[in-house]
Structure formats: structure tokens, C-alpha cells
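FAQ

Q: What does a record look like?
A: Structure on top, sequence underneath. For example:
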């Protein structure tokens, strides 16, 4: 009889370490939330509404992570696996409070460019050497001032007026039959 450990583990092989701005943490739970922005129009004297799709809702990520003491200092370069869990805790707090967007890496969702509007870190005396982070992230998206193509209205107006002038000259130079100029 096969056990759970005999099942294929391709998903487990693709797991990545969790981090935000390269501050690593253990990830207990991660979730992504999104959908469509729908505006429902309801009209007087009409039995059927009209649902207008206004585009995708910004993706939001909820993450529960933790830092915990390690029985020995495993790797001098990685503060996540140290006897002093507070080093990893403090590094993550600094990363979460840093201004601007950063890269969030989740074990199963990959890398996302996000901002962190809120987080909570909890520590209990009865469970020493352990802290839990509840973090909320939102996708950064695109700045509309940067990706909207610039429109040269003066240049477009000049070009259009030149086209109209040239068309008028052409019409005056070659009037249609029966038109006196």
C-alpha cells in the first residue's frame, strides 16, 4: 500500500524559500486574492441589470510567516538559521517598513513586486524563541504617468492642419468638373 511519502513530489521540488526584500522567513500560509471590478447598473423600469467589467482588481497577498530559533548556527551567512531568531525578525521588520515596492517571494507563487501596507508581528512568552508575522501585500502595478504614451497635442494639431491645408490646395488646383473656382 502506498503512503503519502510515495506520491510524486514535483510541487515540493519547486518550493522556494520565502522572503521580502531578501529578508527570509519561514512561510506557514500564503494566499492570493483578486477578481474583477464589476459595476452593476440597474435601470428604472427594467428587469435586467447591466454588469460593466472595469478590469482586474489589484492582487492582494496575505502571508503568515515566522522566525524561530535554530538549535545551532547552521550558516553564518543566513540569519534565518541561527540560534538568535531576533536577527531574522529584526531584518524582516526593517524590510517591511522600508519605503517603496519590493520583491516578495512566496514558496508556491513565485516572485511578485509588491508594497506592504500593514503587518503584525506576535511573540508570546510561553512560546519563547518564536515570532509570527501576519503580512498584507498589494501588487505595485504600473505608474500611469510612466506607461501611458505621451501625446503631442500641439504636434498632432499642426500635422492635422497641414493635412487639411494640403487637401484644400489640391481641391483648388484640380476642381471637380462643374465647379467654378
Amino acid at each position: 500500500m502506498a503512503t503519502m511519502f510515495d506520491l510524486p513530489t514535483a510541487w515540493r521540488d519547486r518550493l522556494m524559500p520565502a522572503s521580502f526584500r531578501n529578508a527570509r522567513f519561514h512561510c506557514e500560509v500564503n494566499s492570493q486574492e483578486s477578481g474583477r471590478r464589476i459595476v452593476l447598473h440597474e435601470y428604472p423600469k427594467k428587469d435586467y441589470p447591466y454588469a460593466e467589467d472595469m478590469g482586474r482588481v489589484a492582487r492582494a497577498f496575505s502571508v503568515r510567516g515566522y522566525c524561530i530559533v535554530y538549535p545551532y548556527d547552521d550558516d553564518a551567512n543566513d540569519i534565518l538559521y541561527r540560534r538568535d531568531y531576533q536577527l531574522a525578525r529584526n531584518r524582516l521588520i526593517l524590510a517591511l517598513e522600508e519605503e517603496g515596492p519590493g520583491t516578495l517571494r512566496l514558496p508556491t507563487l513565485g516572485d511578485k513586486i509588491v508594497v506592504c501596507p500593514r503587518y503584525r508581528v506576535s511573540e508570546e512568552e510561553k512560546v519563547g524563541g518564536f515570532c509570527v508575522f501576519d503580512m498584507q501585500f498589494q501588487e505595485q502595478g504600473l505608474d500611469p504617468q510612466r506607461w501611458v504614451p505621451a501625446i503631442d497635442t500641439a504636434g498632432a494639431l499642426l500635422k492635422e492642419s497641414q493635412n487639411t491645408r494640403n487637401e484644400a490646395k489640391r481641391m483648388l488646383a484640380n476642381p471637380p468638373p462643374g465647379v467654378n473656382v
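Q: Is there anything notable about this one?
A: The chain is about 25% helix and 35% strand.
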